[in-house]
């Protein structure tokens, strides 16, 4: 028996909420981003209550880590503040903006150094940062009327595009200022982060924003590259230009979401609608009956060669995999005319 989109979304959201979601970190932040996306589409206030309970519990523990990657849960603070108006949420948002503007480690070119709770990577910029911190700055800046934050978020975006986007339109995993060159490979999920941020910026920024044209151009270049490398399955291999590496599902969910978001903001993306549909169908075919997206690669640092990406585990349930899938499901439900209750 087949499942409807809403049935799958319900299973996936329940499976996500059953996960440990233990700390204020990037994987949890992406999972929450997905749950927020579903709440915005369905109007199910139980999702908002879960979000509030999780955030309040973390704040009570006092472990809101100040790193680039651990900025991801702050997206949820934006949604909670927008919904509730509680000043304490606004205070933490402002504090995170201040950290990124004034205290976050940077490369000599001004790009954020990619830092995790567990470690830092001296002199390295990673494509992940586009989503984890750069997008947050733009979204928080628009909420707070803080033009400096918006400008810095866009600066981070263009710094990463300039160093990481290759001639074929795809993004390499990282860049090392000591080596003065790219590091890693054309990692699939990293390309999902980049595509999502481009699409979300087009959704957030006003039509009068001068940066929109350059963002659109970067996204168009990337989508053309993605189309060339899409596997016959509808997925992408975890190293996109090395077909011997395994196909990976979270990247497909993220890329499909990005295209579906971008379709609202430009006819030039219609050429990639079928690519997105194929990726979406492929990703959904890997959702088990408990609502867990399978085939998601584990957390992936910059590796030295494709073989090292190929041996990254891909069998565990991952919060970021669930989040990317929930984002896609939300976009598909909206596409099919599902209106939020509020």
Automatic annotation (TrEMBL):
Keywords: Hydrolase. This is Glycoside hydrolase family 105 protein.
